[in-house]
Design brief:
alpha/beta; 333 residues; Rossmann fold; 8 strands; 8-stranded mixed beta sheet; globular; 16 helices; N-(1-d-carboxylethyl)-l-norvaline Dehydrogenase, domain 2; 11% strand
Amino acid sequence: MGKVAVFGAGSWGTAFSIVLADAGNEVKIWGRREEVCATINERHQNTDYLSGIELPRTVSATHDPEEAAAGAEAVFLVVPSQTFRENLQEWADALPREVPLVSLMKGVELGSLKRMSEVIEEVTGAGPERVAVVSGPNLSAEIARREPAASVVACADEEVAQRLQAMCHSPAFRPYTSVDVLGCELGGAYKNVVGLAVGMAVGLGFGDNTTASVITRGLAETARLATALDANPLTLMGLAGLGDLVATCSSPLSRNRTFGENLGKGMTTEEIYASTRQVAEGAKSCSSLLALARRTGIDAPIAEHVDSVVAGKLTAREMMDAFIARDTKAETD
């Protein structure tokens, strides 16, 4: 049994801790709130984020980053992407110097337009051979219930990806490897924006034709940006692209789809934020993804219109009307 650290005690960090424990690891979670850590240690549950799910006895928690990281063979990082740099700067001195640092986050940083792997490299000085990502159709509640799922572990160093693959291959979780870190990260970040758009369509009362159209055009928009930045097109057709997109857009468990549904029903962004402690990454990252697309010279109508709705400049109905009113063209243009 090896030891691993998971920095982040939210729903996804806790769910992935179950995967790691089921794969044979001793898991130490770092949690921001001491009361959450105490509940994990005393009751073997995270009642704030995954109520009713029993955690393996090999999962424990601490508020001390040095204690969490001590002796870890890999560190998995899972906090909201827009606060990640600030958190990582606080943890950096405590992190082991030679082990893989793995992002479980799906976002692009506001301002810098950096992916989470790039933030890790910049803050810690780790080379790309030590920085990895996990991305795929992984809804936290289903993972925590040990429903069968698959994902992608990507690292520029294929041997590191394979080592991490073995570290999280559990009876219910099947990881595949990739060296396309960029494609996996962009697929994971962009699907959240598309999920918001699909949620708005659902909130407006539209059916499967509308949502299927948005999903398909969202995948095309994602692929345009990712391939322009030199991602492997096959990545966008795989688990970290299409797979993650389908899960996010089709499931009521998706935070981003739910956020979009509420926008479609007439709630404001501020009202939605006030009603939940869960973070919908797409609402935070849509403007940075739009800026990245514009900097790359890529047409990104879904990101553009979603950003306008989130910012209160358009209603969800106006967004859907604008999509239909766009100039017609060949599908492959």
